[in-house]
């Protein structure tokens, strides 16, 4: 058999609210549809359901923007309450232009609007990233391992834009159980050349591979990746963040 792996959407999950047990919901839904979790499965989980379960939803009506925020919102043509939320979730503003804030979040991600999102929430609400996505991923992994008895990996994924390329793609913002990078440094290619720069972001590749099944409107917030030989590890998502000293674009 040639190399292959499956990407299986988990359907039937209920609408998630604060305090809901994601472990039992995922375990139940995957079993009901005939694909119970198995040893070696990797799960890609939407950031949105993790944030909802953790209560990371803010009502705009409860936000009072500062005078500086109001001025910035006027420049950007945005709701000042939403800008206030974005700034609270940010370590620093990298750039602001064309109605968009590019920021560095407290978690270290550089992205538009600090990941603050108003899709699939009430009109007066905004959804924030988990406070610690790696911690959230570990909690899911540990809970599902206790529930099923299986060795599993977890990727919490969110949709990010990319410089110089149109379209959004899923990336890993939380990782548990697998190493997020695969290094080929020092290895030789078939022509005998020693590889000096090839480090693959495996966790991002798998997050992206899951997105066509998850979709933005299909209500499939969890995907099982099955049949892939992945490297176990406990580094979390930190290795995916490039050292600012080596970052040519900040």
The helix/strand class is alpha+beta
Mind summarizing the main beta sheet? 6 strands, mixed
Distance between the termini: 45 Å
Using only CA atoms, what is the Rg?
19 Å
How many distinct beta strands? 13
The backbone outline, from C-alpha atoms, is globular
Give me some keywords for this one:
three-stranded antiparallel β-sheet; 250 residues; six-stranded mixed β-sheet; alpha+beta
Q: How would you describe this structure to a colleague?
A:
The chain is an alpha+beta fold. It has helices at about 20-30, 45-55, 65-75, 80-90, 135-150, 200-215, and strands at about 5-10, 40-45, 55-60, 90-95, 100-105, 110, 125, 155-160, 165-180, 180-185, 200, 220-225, 230-235. The strands form four sheets. The protein has a six-stranded mixed beta sheet with strand order 1-12-2-8-9-13. Helix 1 packs across helix 5. The longest helix is centred in the middle third of the chain and has 16 residues, at about 135-150. The N and C termini lie far apart (about 45 Å).
Summarize the structure.
With 250 residues, the protein is an alpha+beta fold.
Which helices and strands appear, and what pairs or packs with what?
Blueprint: E1 6-9, H1 22-32, E2 42-46, H2 47-53, E3 57-59, H3 67-76, H4 80-88, E4 90-97, E5 100-105, E6 110-112, E7 125-127, H5 133-148, E8 153-162, E9 165-178, E10 182-183, E11 199-200, H6 202-214, E12 222-226, E13 232-233
Parallel strand pairs: 2-8
Antiparallel strand pairs: 1-12, 2-12, 3-7, 4-5, 5-6, 8-9, 9-13, 10-11
Helix pairs in contact: 1-5, 3-4
């Amino acid at each position: 058999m040639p190399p292959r792996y499956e990407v299986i959407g988990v359907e039937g999950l209920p609408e998630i609210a604060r305090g809901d047990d994601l472990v039992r919901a995922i375990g139940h839904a995957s079993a009901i549809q005939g694909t119970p979790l198995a040893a070696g499965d990797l799960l890609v989980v939407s950031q949105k359901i993790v944030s909802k379960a953790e209560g990371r939803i803010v009502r705009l009506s409860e936000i009072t923007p500062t005078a500086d925020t109001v001025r910035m919102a006027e420049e950007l043509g945005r709701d000042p309450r939403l800008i206030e939320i974005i700034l609270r979730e940010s370590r620093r503003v990298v750039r602001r232009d064309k109605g968009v804030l590019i920021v560095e979040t407290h978690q270290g991600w550089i992205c538009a609007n600090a990941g603050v999102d108003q899709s699939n929430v009430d009109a007066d609400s905004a959804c924030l990233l988990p406070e610690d996505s790696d911690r959230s991923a570990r909690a899911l992994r540990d809970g599902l391992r206790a529930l099923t008895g299986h060795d599993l990996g977890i990727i919490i994924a969110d949709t990010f834009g990319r410089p110089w390329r149109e379209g959004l793609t899923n990336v890993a913002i939380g990782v548990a159980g697998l190493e997020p990078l695969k290094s080929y440094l020092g290895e030789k290619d078939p022509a005998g050349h020693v590889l000096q720069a090839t480090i693959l972001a495996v966790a991002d590749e798998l997050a992206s591979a899951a997105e066509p099944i998850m979709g933005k409107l299909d209500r499939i917030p969890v995907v099982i990746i099955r049949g892939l030989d992945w490297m176990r590890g406990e580094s979390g998502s930190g290795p995916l963040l490039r050292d600012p000293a080596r970052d040519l674009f900040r």
